[in-house]
Structures are given as structure tokens and as C-alpha cells.
Amino acid sequence: MSQYHPMPEQCADTVPVKVNRVFDSCSDRDCFSNVQILMDGGELPANVTMVKSRCVRVSDICMNIEPVPFNRGFYSIDLTYTFRVELMAYERSCSSPVLLTGTAYTSKNVILYGGESNTKTFFSSGEQIGDTNACCETINLPTAAVQVVEPIALEARIGSVCGPDGAAPVRTVIMTLGLFSVVELFRPVTILVPTYEYTIPAKECHADTESPCAVFDKIRFPAEEFTPATLSGSAKSESCHCGDTVQQNEDSTS
Q1: Buried b (16+ CB within 10 A) or exposed e, 229-253
Q2: 23: which residues sit within 8 A by CB, 6+ positions away?
Q3: pLDDT tens profile 58-107
Q4: How far apart are the first and last CA of the chain?
Q5: CA-CA distance, 21 to 190, in Å (whole number)?
Q6: Are the C-beta atoms of residues 180 and 81 closer than 8 Å to each other?
Q7: Which of 50, 61, 187, 222 is the residue whose CA sits 20 to 30 A from 73?
Q8: Under 8 Å between Cβ of 154 and 32
Q9: Rounded to whole angstroms, what are the CA distances from 123 to 129, 138, 192, 206?
Q10: Are 4 and 199 in contact (CB under 8 A)?
């Protein structure tokens, strides 16, 4: 990694910088159970007797932010996740699977502090922050951001749900999904930061001229991969070689 060091004989100057300040954030571990999959082809085929999850991903997140009444500066964030699901459907346990796809939706709510601002901001690009309602009150909501990793399919089973308008039950897939997420509320603010004169990086640019076999010879032999870990020693075995792996990777890239 390149290292940049300020000149020791120079003092830092402060300059104003426009950044997005995170006012509040939270992390969550959600387990969504009884999630109904809306099959792309309609009802699950009648000959399917078993399903397995092949892939689940978050394709969209719909966010709605509203101020919390009688609690100034706090905002309620309604999140609706859209999942795209790929399933392997089997007519019998030993038969060749058929790929089926579908969509699922789940919702949750969080409350975070987002600060208060009664200003409107206009940019030369045409962007505008803040709005005015019918009572001439400025509404300047913070911006929400949600980070997620791909969900984990904990269970997939065949079930029946009620059809629309009291129709006959419809066969579909019911899943349990695990999802890790981080939700943030931020606003654009101006802050002062120290700055230094730019210095030339100390690291030289060079390409690795060694042969692929020479690079391979520097990699530590993964002995632990050939020794199945027990339940009691799995956590210990994973942590023991973490530093060695990082150090070896750094040696091989230097």
C-alpha cells in the first residue's frame, strides 16, 4: 500500500470541505420467516415435490423516511426488500432439477436520529435539497443508505397460500431468509479539515517479473484444509492462521 507522509517542517492549513456526515446508523441481523415466493410462471408446477435454493439476492430496497412525531430530529425509516430467487425444483429426489425463478418481498422499520435542518439548497446542476409544503414550512429530510450482503437461504419448502379474492389455495415456495444490513442517515455539511502539501509516494511502481511457479512456491501449504476441524476446535483453527495468511499474502505481493 502506498504511504503518504506530510512534510514535518510544514504546518497544516484548514480548508472547508463539503461532505456527507453520518448522524446515526445501526446494524441488524434479520431472520425473515414464512416468506412467500411469487413464482414467475404463476403457480408452482404440480409435479414438483421438492425444492432447493440455488441463489438469493437483494435486487431492490424501497425506502420511505418520515419524521417521528413529538421526537424532534428522529426519523422513521420503512424498508421494503425485494429478493430475486432461483430454485432447483425436483419431481423426485434423484431426478434432474429444473430451474425456477421468483420474487419475494419483506419489510422492516428502524428509527434513527437524523438531525434537523430548515434550509433549502440549490445546485448549479439542477439538484435541490429540501422542499416547501403548503404551509410554507421547509422540509429537509436526511438521506438514508442501506448496505446489505447477499441473503442466506435458511429454509425452502413447498406450501400453499390463499388465492386472490378467496380463490382456491395456490402452491408456492415458502422460504426463511437471513439478512445482515447496515442503515445510515446522513446530511451534507461543511467541515474544516487539515491539509498538507502533496508528497511523492515512497513506493516504487514495478511489475512482478517472477514466474507463476516462483510465486506459487512462496504460498504457505494449506495444511489445515486437509485436516477436518472438530466442532470444539473450529473457531481456534480459523483464528490461528489468520495472521500467517495475511503476512504471507503481503510477502508474495511485495
Answers
A1: eeeeeeeeeeeeeeeeeeeeeeebe
A2: 112, 113, 114, 115, 142, 185, 186, 187
A3: 999 999 999 998 888 999 999 999 999 999 999 987 889 999 999 999 99
A4: 10
A5: 9
A6: no
A7: 61
A8: no
A9: 9, 17, 21, 43
A10: yes
